[in-house]
Design a protein that fits this description.
Helix content is 18%, strand content 21%. It is of the alpha+beta class. The strands form two sheets. It has a two-stranded antiparallel ribbon. It has two helices and four strands; from the N terminus they run βαββαβ.
Length: 56
């Protein structure tokens, strides 16, 4: 299952820098993960200071 970013996102950009496949982009006030590009590696989750990314 692809990762999804919760409303806890503080839009710091850590997840974007940590994503090896560039699946994360800015959405409406928070970052969003493109499910088709996500390889479920967990890199975004490990670098997020607030734990916003999680598997669906």
């Amino acid at each position: 299952m692809a990762y999804q970013i919760s409303d806890a996102c503080i839009a710091c950009g850590s997840c974007v820098e940590g994503c090896p496949v560039e699946a994360i982009s800015m959405g409406d006030g928070k970052y969003e993960i493109n499910e088709e590009l996500c390889v479920e590696c967990g890199a975004c989750e490990s670098v997020c200071p607030v734990g916003a990314p999680a598997q669906k």
